[in-house]
Write a structure and sequence with these properties.
Distance between the termini: 29 Å
Number of helices: 9
CATH topology of the largest domain: Rossmann fold
Number of strands: 16
Radius of gyration: 21 Å
Order of helices and strands: HHEEHEHEEEEEEEHEEHEHEHEHE
Largest sheet: 6 strands, antiparallel
Bound molecules: FE2/S2 (inorganic) cluster
Amino acid sequence: MLTNQVNENYIPFRARPLRRRERACPGQNHKYCTIPRFESSLLGLQLHMAGLVTVQPGGKRFSVDGSETVLEAALRAGLALDYGCSNGNCGLCLAQVLSGDAERVKPHDFVISDTRREQGQILMCAYTVRGDAEILATEATGAGDIPRQEIDARIKKLTRLAGDTWLLHLQTPRTRRLRFLAGQSALLSFADTHLSLPIASCPCDDRNIEFHVQMTTPAHWRESLMALKTGDSVRIDGPVGDFHLQDGAQRPRVFLAFDGGFAPIKSLVEHAMQLEHQQPHYLYWFAVDKDSHYMNNQMRSWADAFDNFHYAPRSATASGKPDVAPVFAELARQGISLATCEIYVAGPRKYAACARDAALAAGCEDRYISVNALP
Ligand code: FES
């Protein structure tokens, strides 16, 4: 049922900075272990053999715990490697082991031909590595690299964050996970209602998908939303949109979120932190009323946890319009030139357009400005 309770301190498990440490010992902490308890005890020391996987081309790296499949570890690390079903049926996660040892830890129905086996190909969703390894695999770098998917998910939680903003937490079936890039959106369908919403969570957890819902939406939407309860089915159709992190650049990142535009910005920041991107990240969240900074505490905790993440809530001006000029002036005083930055803007169309124009006027190159203009 709905929980009509303000929960500004809500912190998803995966955002907590200790997450990596908690997952690093699955043999002792079976809550996070994907291998059944009896099986993991039989495997004994093998569970603690972590490996470092290097993905070619590109050379990105991530660690694999003994109990994890290569795919699980890659997703946890925030990489967008190609996959489909995640349960050994489709063959879309085939990768070639260039060096190192791989071992099957999950059954799969997809048949790996003898030719592929001789080439060292494995299914990333069914195999782990023993020790360090190098693999050849493809990774999505743009929105066009990820197919559109339709998934019937269940409501895990619908709870009020603050004011009229609610958290809608959907969970997909284990065998149907949503591939998306941080910053993208999805269409939600339930009870003859169709909503397009930005995804607020990180693709590093492709089963738990979160949305921030403004209950000030039209009355018929609000009624349908309020009638939802835990366990109800919601169809997810997505991902849609081309708002995502630019790949490869090491530029400082400036995020400008306006009201509910915070949701896709949070997804971007969470993903960047998960990927351990080292450049500075500056988040300015403009709110037009006092309840709009509905995750203020969480952003402050992230700023405390990550040296390269800086957060500053901002209020609307007396005219009701957010003014980004003081933000750019503040960055300039810190020695940050917009000409060297990537800018990510998300929020209502009129604010997003103003912010983009201001960033251009302040010297940011057009190709480094990404805008998610919401209705
Ligand atoms: S993702 Fe389908 S077989 Fe691995």
